[in-house]
Write a structure and sequence with these properties.
7 helices; 434 Repressor (Amino-terminal Domain); single chain
C-alpha cells in the first residue's frame, strides 16, 4: 500500500473530508488530493502532524512494504550466491532496522 493510499484510508476512517484535513494542516485541498493520489508527498512537519492526528507512526505512513528488509536480504543472496540460512541474523537485522525508525519517530515527535 502506498503512502497516498494509507493517507486516504486513514482520512476516511477518521471521517474527515479533504477540505477539513487541509484546514487542520494549513494546506490547500488540492495538496491533500495530490498526496492521496501519490502525485506529491507531504512535507516532514505535515507527516508528523498526520501521524499524531491518526495515532500512528511516521514509519507506518512512509513504509510501503514491511518486508523490505527480507526482500533486500533475499535479493543480496541471489546476486552474490551467498546463502543466508541463519534466520536469527535476519531477525536481528529487522529488529535493528525497526528500532532505528522508532528512535527517529521519538526524536522528531518529542521536538514538536
Amino acid at each position: 500500500m502506498t503512502t497516498g493510499e494509507k493517507l486516504q484510508n486513514l482520512r476516511k476512517e477518521n471521517n474527515y473530508t479533504q477540505e477539513e484535513l487541509a484546514d487542520i494542516l494549513g494546506v490547500s485541498r488540492q495538496s491533500v488530493s495530490k498526496w492521496e493520489s501519490d502525485v506529491a508527498f507531504p512535507e516532514t512537519d505535515k507527516l508528523i502532524t498526520l501521524a499524531k492526528l491518526y495515532h500512528c507512526t511516521v514509519d507506518y505512513l512512509l513504509n510501503t512494504d514491511n518486508n523490505d528488509i527480507t526482500s533486500e536480504t533475499n535479493s543480496f543472496s541471489e546476486k552474490t550466491g551467498v546463502e543466508t540460512t541463519n534466520k536469527k541474523k535476519i531477525s536481528i537485522y529487522n529488529n535493528l532496522y525497526q528500532c532505528s525508525y522508532i528512535g527517529f519517530d521519538f526524536v522528531f515527535l518529542s521536538m514538536v
